[in-house]
From TrEMBL, chains A, B:
Keywords: Auxin signaling pathway, DNA-binding, Nucleus, Transcription, Transcription regulation. Homodimers and heterodimers. GO terms for cellular component: nucleus. It is found in: Nucleus. This is Auxin response factor. It comes from Thelypteris nipponica. The chain holds residues 1 to 383 of 1023 of the full protein. The lineage of its organism: Eukaryota, Viridiplantae, Streptophyta, Embryophyta, Tracheophyta.
Length: 383, 383
DNA sequence: CTGTGGGCAACGTGCCGACAA
DNA sequence: TTGTCGGCACGTTGCCCACAG
């Protein structure tokens, strides 16, 4: 077993992972997508899957599994958070025996919590860290304003239980909260640059915790490719899943929320709700949640422009990213061109702005692309 | 293909890899050992193979392959050298068609070359780098001794073609060669500490090259385990080899000379010479080459104490590390307890010091462990 | 011949309020 | 409210030689 590493503080892990990330409950049923896992490997190695990967004809595009264990970890070098999940494929008959009680663990951000994106001044060697007023008042212990200037020593634990000590002072004209002594060693130790974020939490016992989120644009851990060829990694992912499916035995999956393009272990209930109760059709309008540069959530609107296999030769009929989509705002072009059904929230099409002729078309059989002329005319009309 | 990275300078690569490392020639026939490859993964991840790995009954413990390509690389973060080999399993009948012309590429260290282990003074922030006199005279361009003091600017390329600039000066009482300006940025950029080594080469065109060798004791790249479970990595290695063997198709192997406990791609001619022309038996005396702390070669003497499978359940009859050995010098205990036949040089047993009764024992059938009492008495007698 | 340490100058780090966005 | 800057003190870096192993 690889259980010799201790799990890290769950609240801090989720704060570092960001508001969009939730993990399925231990014991519940989930759907595991080898394709998604492979995409995470591709994102980590910067190598796409090429033609050398053998087919695993007995490996389905999705495996219903029981989630036996979730361990939360953080990379020792980079502090990147990741989750180690123990999965076990379940047989068809077992699937109906027990349905999971809920959809996901609490992914709510802690209450006494703040997250600030670092400025050039925060990360320069010239000075310290400027703490937003409200943040300092919410999560730091109150200062003694009788002292001149008011100051105290802060101690905060990171994901590895390393304690960082900062001098917290309230000074300047106008007055502001600053972290001075101790700040620069933290910045250089964690190799923070302007654009990265720092977050502080006050937990139940009043202890301070702190974590970091690197800027979305920054390359996360570029897997040192010196150990294993990316081919072998992709094969390893598929062969491990195929072996587990064939023998109904447990296997290990590492999920990197901030590297992986999408979650690939989905609560079964969420999956079923999306697949069985959503009438998806070309032209359907939907919303989808993304994390902004400022680490907040934002919904973007889009339209389904096609339904079909992402990789028809290897994974025919897979539900993984089988929806082609377009986005209303063409400006920020970092949004995916393909999504999966469970990632989106359908929006009841406002009949007012779309002629009934298009909106009421009979649903096309899934997996088949129809003539897109109608759709194009509709979209043009919408502009 | 993963050929988008450029190969690095071969001479410099071999200098960094060390004198013990040689690579098979491109085009030649080699023997590939999945077990050895797996051991490299274990060394990189610090995770031993556990029981969760499926068996690949169709995968032999050794594959005869043609070596189609060798690309020399270096890790961008750590400068660790590694080789990417393209292998293709060959059929039984093909094996005899062409025998490789030679045993290995030139692994001789370059002529105009020196390697110095860094002292505390070399790596401290207090000063520069003290260049051994002979080394400076052999590889650096000659100084103009009319100048007072004699000094010049040195430019040297590393494995990534990054140019480092140093001020080379000859001063002090007594006079000595020093690198001053530019040295400390190099030390901190490469994260060198006392005990690591730096090497300089003057190539054919008079250009200076430089590289590093980290101290043997220092942990090399600890694979950030956040991407792939070590189980999946081991499975990936085995499944990739099994697939290639089944389809006679090419596959990629990454060899890390300084991380891997042993080479696992061996020239076929070397393998055959060792296996067919060596009468191995318990009690046999041999020598084996190791790299010392000072980056030089040294031979150690040992005795074969047993012959048998390293992993009888998974790899029965494998020649990989099937010799159990003891070493004459018990002091330095970092030498392996098991070796493979092609790693050692048999020494004709001096009959003078061992009673003929032991030395002339009939050879035991390989793979079977005999009664060790005779051997033990012999070894005791030798002390 | 070369590793370490004292002396000393130059430079960078880091704390302060001023100012403005 | 908070990001950046000039001012300034102090600690570190880095070049020099002396000395000794």
């Amino acid at each position: 077993m690889e259980g010799d590493r201790r799990s890290v503080n769950s609240e801090l892990w989720h704060a570092c992972a960001g508001p969009r990330i939730s993990l399925p409950s231990v014991g519940s049923l989930v759907v595991y997508f080898p394709q998604g896992h492979s995409e995470q490997v591709a994102a980590s190695t910067l190598k796409e899957v090429d033609g050398h990967i053998p087919n695993y004809p007995n490996l389905q595009s999705q495996l219903v599994c029981q989630l036996h264990n979730v361990a939360l970890h953080a990379d020792l070098e980079t502090d990147e958070v990741f989750a180690q999940m123990t999965l076990q494929p379940v047989n068809e008959q077992e699937k109906e025996l027990f349905l999971p009680p809920d959809v996901g663990t609490q992914n709510r951000q802690p209450n006494d919590f703040f997250c600030k994106t670092l400025t050039a001044s925060d990360t320069s060697t010239h000075g310290g860290f400027s703490v937003p007023r409200r943040a300092a008042e919410k999560v730091f212990p109150p200062l003694d304003f009788n002292k001149q200037p008011p100051a105290q020593e802060l101690r905060a634990k990171d994901l590895h239980d390393h304690v960082w000590v900062f001098r917290h002072i309230y000074r300047g004209q106008p007055k502001r909260h600053l972290l001075t002594t101790g700040w620069s060693v933290f910045v250089s130790a964690k190799r923070l640059v302007a654009g990265d974020s720092v977050l502080f939490i006050r937990d139940d016992k009043g202890q301070l915790l702190l974590g970091i989120r690197r800027a979305n644009s920054r390359q996360q851990t570029v897997m040192p490719s010196s150990v294993l060829s990316s081919d072998s990694m992709h094969i390893g992912v598929l062969a491990a899943a195929a072996h587990a499916a064939a023998t109904s035995s447990r296997f290990q999956v590492f999920y990197n929320p901030r590297t992986s393009p999408s979650e690939f272990v989905i609560p079964l209930s969420k999956y079923r709700k999306a697949v069985h109760f959503t009438q998806v059709s070309v032209g359907m309008r939907f919303r989808m949640v993304f994390e902004t540069e400022e680490s907040t959530l934002r919904r973007y609107m889009g339209t389904v422009t096609g339904i079909g296999d992402l990789d028809g030769s290897r994974w025919p009929g897979s539900k993984w990213r089988n929806l082609e989509v377009g986005w209303d705002e063409s400006s920020a072009g970092e949004r995916p061109r393909r999504v999966s059904l469970w990632e989106i929230e359908p929006v009841s099409t406002p009949f007012l702005i779309c002629p009934p002729a298009f909106a009421l078309r009979p649903k096309r059989p899934p997996g088949l692309l129809g003539d897109d002329n109608d759709l194009k005319r509709c979209l043009t009309w919408l502009r």
